[in-house]
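Hypothesis: this fold can be encoded by more than one sequence.
Test: take the structure tokens below, design a sequence, compare later.
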């Protein structure tokens, strides 16, 4: 938004919400597994016949595709470590006068894996963390020189943390010959 105060002083107000999603994945352990799909593809019958009465005649039957998902594993323990971070900020900037930023940062570190020690289970365990803080600054520019009047923060408004916010296991089938 742009306008003039007293028809003389130009004021620009900018409102924004920059957001980013950061992630990281890593593996540890050992797992002998197959993941994929079995495909059965029938393209149909397509041919041409020549008869004295009808001449060239084309013959076509419909095609068919069958997809069967496959997930099989037979030994080992494997874990995937996942780190998901969302950084989002609500920003109000009044050009050459002040700004205010509200920063929200939820994160979710998780460990997901297979284990025979846990009675053949697929388990997901993850922590939850959510931090909200804010910061403000008042300043002005006079004759091309910046002057800081007051700076506030960053100051925490809210912080939530819970270890093992997610802790869930589901049994998987018995060992499968791969």
């Amino acid at each position: 938004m742009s306008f003039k105060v007293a028809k003389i002083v130009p004021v620009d107000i900018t409102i924004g919400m920059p957001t980013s999603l950061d992630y990281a994945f890593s593996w540890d352990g050992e797992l002998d597994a197959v993941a994929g799909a079995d495909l059965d593809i029938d393209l149909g019958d397509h041919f041409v016949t020549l008869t004295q009465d009808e001449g060239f005649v084309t013959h076509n039957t419909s095609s068919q595709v069958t997809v069967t998902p496959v997930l099989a594993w037979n030994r080992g323990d494997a874990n995937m470590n996942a780190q998901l971070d969302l950084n989002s900020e609500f920003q109000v900037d009044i050009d050459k006068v002040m700004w205010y930023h509200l920063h929200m940062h939820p994160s979710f570190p998780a460990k997901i894996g297979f284990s025979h020690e846990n009675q053949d289970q697929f388990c997901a365990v993850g922590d939850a963390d959510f931090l909200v803080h804010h910061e403000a600054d008042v300043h002005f520019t006079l004759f091309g020189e910046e002057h800081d009047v007051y700076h506030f923060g960053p100051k925490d408004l809210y912080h939530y943390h819970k270890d093992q916010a997610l802790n869930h296991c589901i049994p998987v089938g018995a060992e499968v010959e791969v």
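Residues 34-74 form one domain. The chain has two domains: 2-31+76-171, 34-74.
Hypothesis status: open.
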